[in-house]
Amino acid sequence: MSAPKPQAPAPELAVETLGDGGFRLSDQQPDRFTMIVFYRG
Asked: How far apart are CA 21 and CA 40, in angstroms?
């Protein structure tokens, strides 16, 4: 996989969440950016 480029669309990402049913990266409309953190506690 090549490095991401600024302003390029991100690959599709969809995950189920515990609280509100799900998260789809393509549905996000942030003012600046969306940060995704994976924690393996």
From this structure: 20
Residue range 7-20, pLDDT digits in tens: 888 889 999 988 87
What pTM was computed for the model?
0.60
Take residue 20 and report the two structure tokens written for it.
Answer: 């509100």
Q: Tell me the two tokens of residue 18.
A: 């515990």
Which one, of 36, 40, 41, lies nearest residue 15 by Cα? 36
What number of helices (H) and strands (E) belong to the chain? 0, 2
Instruction: Pull the structure tokens for residue 32.
Output: 């600046």
